[in-house]
Amino acid sequence: MVQELVGAIVALFCVALVYTGMAARVIKQYERGVLFRLGRVAGDVRPPGFTMIIPFVDRLAKVNMQIVTLPIPAQEGITRDNVTVRVDAVVYFRVVDATSALVKVEDYKFAVSQMAQTSLRSIIGKSDLDDLLSNREKLNQGLELMIDSPAVGWGIQVDRVEIKDVSLPDTMKRSMARQAEADRERRARIINADAELQASKKLAEAAQQMSGTPAALQLRLLQTVMAVSAEKNSTLVLPIPVELLHFLERGNRGDAPADDARPERDREPRQKPDRSPTEIAPREFTSNGDRAPGPDVNGAPAPDLEIGHQTLAPNPGGGPRPD
């Protein structure tokens, strides 16, 4: 009798031990437990720690309440200014209502992933290329709002959305590189022009200051010669004062005739007197400087003159020549 009682107690203890092992559950600190009894949600969400359920009747589902990092695959789209880009991002979210995350959506991680991809493609189509490259903070806020709106009903809160990378075509990269290079060259030219302007103003002030004291110009010339000769150069450049060149130029102008000191190119050409074709040369000389027909100094008859193909004999009388 005693042995049967001891055996019953041991059997009951074993059954209780097995039942306790099947009914006991441990929920971690970052988890929450949702109890389903015969397929329906029973009671509130179980807090972290040790809890008991009814075996074969209850089912305890644990939900992770940590922040989940979900990468969004790269999405290819066309921006508002017709540029093809590939954009990838990352979403940080966490579950705030464990019951809604299990009851209202089948797989909340997959649902958030699909919603993030759709919202990213929509953001790409509504934005310009410059906004994707430089104004990402505003796009991140818009993307977060688009994802968080439907996720609130699923018991999920989106903490942050970040655009990681924007991939551009090679042709667009080369165009942007040329644009940046041209902009830097423009700024460099503006800076050089500004430096030249400031230097010219300072040089003008220095020249105005030296014009009152010619000795200062001579001292500056000597300083320049000393600076050049101190470097052991084989060639010495000796500048000539401009005043000396002006003096030599005035001396050269003084050697010209007094009647007309203007340069030869500025002088007016002298006009020769017009002579009528009917004007007769003097009797003694012809137009070429030879003596006219007539007796020689010694009384000898002058030689005949050949005009064209005719030979004219001398006319001692000086009267009209017969034909």
Report what the structure shows.
This protein has about 325 residues and is of the alpha+beta class. The N and C termini lie far apart (about 200 Å). It has eight helices and ten strands. The model is unreliable at about 275-295 and about 305-315 (pLDDT under 50). The protein is rod-shaped.
Protein topology:
Elements: H1 2-23, E1 24-27, E2 31-37, E3 40-41, E4 49-52, E5 58-64, E6 68-78, E7 84-95, H2 98-103, H3 108-126, H4 129-134, H5 136-151, E8 156-167, H6 170-211, H7 214-229, H8 242-254, E9 305-307, E10 310-312
Antiparallel strand pairs: 1-4, 2-3, 2-5, 6-7, 7-8, 9-10
Tell me how many strands there are: 10
As a percent range, the share of helical residues equals: 40-55%
Structural class by helix and strand composition: alpha+beta
Distance between the termini: 198 Å
Largest sheet: 3 strands, antiparallel
Q: Give the strand order, joined by hyphens, for the main sheet.
A: 3-2-5
Mean pLDDT equals 77
Residues in β-strands, percent: 15-25%
Oligomer: single chain
H/E order of the elements?
HEEEEEEEHHHHEHHHEE
Question: Helix tally?
Answer: 8
Q: Provide the low-confidence segments as ranges.
A: 276-293, 304-313
Provide a quick synopsis of the model.
The protein has 323 residues and is of the alpha+beta class. It is built from eight helices and ten strands.
